[in-house]
Specification:
Helices cover 70% and strands 0% of the residues. By secondary structure, it is mainly α. The radius of gyration is 15 Å and the shape is elongated. The N and C termini lie far apart (47 Å).
């Protein structure tokens, strides 16, 4: 069984882009709409899962249509972990409240 690296330059670049998209989602839902739902502060951060599922659809679509594998499974796992850790830090740790 071959071990693949999950934390690569490619996965870090995609993770940073996903964090920016997630930050826009959190800003819109929790600050602009201000509905009091606190979606980013749940046990499973909803913005992180939403952005990751969108990324997963793009990766799967590219693999199916163009036969190009954009990210490996290990890289996707690292991106998911980065998003799950970044969401509560962005809400409570940076600008929210």
């Amino acid at each position: 069984m071959e071990m693949r690296k999950g934390l690569t330059l490619r996965s870090l670049a995609v993770a940073l882009f996903a964090i920016v998209v997630m930050a826009m989602h959190v800003q819109y839902v929790e600050v602009i709409l201000a509905d009091g739902s606190a979606v980013a502060e749940q046990a499973l951060p909803i913005p992180a899962v939403t952005v990751f599922l969108g990324l997963l659809l793009v990766v799967a679509g590219l693999r199916w249509l163009a036969r190009v594998q954009l990210l490996e499974k290990a890289e996707l796992f690292c991106i998911l972990l980065i998003l799950l850790i970044a969401t509560p830090i962005m809400t409570q740790g940076m600008w929210h409240r």
